[in-house]
Amino acid sequence: MNTSDQYLKAIYLVQQVEDGPASTGRVADVLDVSPASANEMIGKLQDRGFADHEKYKGVSLTEDGIVRAREALQTYCIIERFLIEVLEVEGFREEAKTLETVIDTTVAERLDTIIDRESQCPSCFGPEADVCELLECDSFETADSEMAD
Amino acid sequence: MSVTRAVGSDHQLARLLQIGMVLEEVVEARAYKHAQSMEIELESEILALLEDAAEESAEHRTKLESLVDELEAEPVPFEQIEPLVEAQYGKTKPEDFDGVLYDQLCNEETAYKFYDDVIAAIEASDTSFSIDRHRLVTVLSGIREEEADGVEEVTTLMESRQ
Questions:
Q1: CATH number of the CATH domain containing A52
Q2: Is residue A144 part of a domain?
Q3: ipTM exceeds 0.90, yes or no
Q4: What residue numbers bound the domain in which A114 lies?
Q5: Does A136 lie at the interface with B, CB-CB under 8 angstroms?
Q6: What is the pLDDT of residues B52-97, one digit of tens each?
Q7: Prediction pTM value
Q8: CB contact under 8 A, B106 and A106
């Protein structure tokens, strides 16, 4: 996933949590980048018609931006679900974050052919839990922690 | 979340190589399924292409497995992936010969893109991996080259059928 798609996804998720425009600082925090870097990329996204940035209010995605963000989120959902279902990775959230920078959408689509993903994806993604809400990962994590004990 | 595209640890590298193994296993298993599931017998050229693709994927898998072993991670066995391909195949199977070829083209292009991105992420990294970086990149570059040849082979076959 390229950098601009990561930004679009982050803005989309922050907007969902904040139920309004996303503050640049929050987007920078989520992406672990400096506010200056976030500002610069948000400016580029605005130039490309994916976002509207209003000073002191924050950034909102345009319709085109939302489409791209949801595609990026779907790629992320595939990576997370693949890590859980196929490789049985305990720390799937952390690993998905490091892998999404290298895993392209086309690669995720191939991985998607062996996982069991719901048709409403990515609408079922819970931004606060950082995982698909339909995924029964609680029992998975419990099982893992029991194994760790 | 981070926007860095560099591979930052042995663990992340091993995970990427495991994903490479899975991709190869998906190609191999789907090639077998294509050959079995077509109601009309596949043309000899397409059958040969699928057999070559499955064989090549198995070779790539062995090379990746050796790297994963060196990183002291668990390889992903083909026996684990084959049933997963089988389970979802009905939803994703191609309808006809052209669909089989298109699927195979996607396999080769996807694999090429994957290795290209992984090599770029290794080259962008300052991490000192526990396996020799030069050999790692040489192995992955060799596989990437074969995927590029595969793209060309499928494209040529597709064009000859038009």
A1: 1.10.10.10
A2: no
A3: no
A4: 70-133
A5: no
A6: 888 999 999 999 999 999 999 999 999 999 999 988 888 878 878 8
A7: 0.87
A8: yes
